[in-house]
Design goal:
single chain, mainly alpha, 13 helices, 73% helix, transmembrane helix, membrane, Transmembrane protein
């Protein structure tokens, strides 16, 4: 049923997934003891990320013109929200998606300086809200290596973007006393403490996401022989992005950015799989987990 419904791409699919995410984020805000209407931007951020993910996936031909991707993406996003994550990581996540869009567009070879600057700028902005976003600067330099290794001026562009954000945040710190710099360095010290880690459903869930993201990333990197030469650079960037996400999870325990990688990987499996029972199972399982999670937490 779900496989037939989401086989094409229609506006109704976006409406359904957006309302699902809106309900889940609303539930998260209402039930969270320290949040309120001041955090209404969380549903907006989550909703915008659906359209941004779909644009990235379709524009770079990671998936064909169907809605499997936004369904899986929305379900996984809801699950991460229900298992509660840092509220400001939602903002960082949106900026990192914007950066990924610019990084992947570097494959055209046009306006490289602008694209590198934009990607680096978005990552630097993400670092304000979540310090460990700095890991994703490695993807920018990887893309420069792939697309323009010999052009030395491109290697300086990320540092220009970083300097721009540093100057702006320093100015804001001095004028408004926001302590952005102090928060940035204190968050970098908040590593995942494995010595005091305890077994829980949250740990199992996030670890499962990270493991699935690792499998997806390795599978993308190993599938080069079956991918056209023009598409290999895009899949290599996506694969290495997944590895950075896994590294971030190992260091901090945050698995929010595993969602787009897993969604693209599962969608490609669904597109290549003709067995209807398999497709239905993959599409239904996340929804069943969502319902069960809400039921046991009420």
């Amino acid at each position: 049923m779900l496989s037939s419904f989401f086989r094409t791409s229609k506006p109704i699919h976006f409406i359904i997934t957006f309302l699902m995410v809106l309900f889940a984020t609303g539930y998260y805000i209402i039930t969270h003891p320290y949040l309120g209407w001041g955090y209404v931007w969380i549903p907006i951020t989550a909703g915008l990320s659906i359209g941004l993910f779909h644009f990235i996936a379709i524009k770079n031909e990671f998936i064909s013109n169907n809605s499997y991707g936004i369904w899986l993406y929305s379900c996984l996003l809801i699950l991460v929200i229900l298992y509660s994550t840092s509220e400001y990581s939602f903002l960082a996540y949106l900026f990192l998606l914007l950066a990924l869009r610019r990084i992947l567009s570097m494959r055209t070879g046009k306006q490289m300086t602008r694209k590198i600057f934009d990607a680096s700028l978005w990552i630097a902005v993400a670092c304000i809200f979540y310090s460990w976003s700095t890991i994703f600067f490695t993807i920018v330099f990887l893309s420069i290596t792939i697309h323009a290794f010999k052009n030395l001026k491109y290697w300086a562009v990320p540092f220009v973007a970083i300097s721009t954000i540093l100057i702006l945040t320093f100015t804001i710190d001095q004028y408004f006393t926001t302590n952005l710099w102090r928060d940035f360095f204190s968050e970098l010290n908040d590593n995942l403490d494995y010595t005091n880690i305890k077994f829980s459903s949250d740990l199992v869930f996030y670890s499962s996401l990270a493991f699935l993201c690792l499998i997806a990333s390795v599978a993308m990197l190993l599938s080069f022989p079956n991918i056209s030469l023009s598409a290999r650079s895009r899949f290599s960037v996506l694969g290495f992005t997944g590895l950075c996400v896994v590294a971030e999870f190992i260091l901090t325990g945050t698995a929010l950015l595993t969602i787009p990688i897993i969604s693209i990987f599962l969608t490609r499996l669904l597109q290549e799989q003709e067995h209807k029972v398999f497709r239905e199972s993959v599409l239904w399982i996340p929804l069943i987990i969502i319902v069960a999670t809400i039921f046991f937490r009420i």
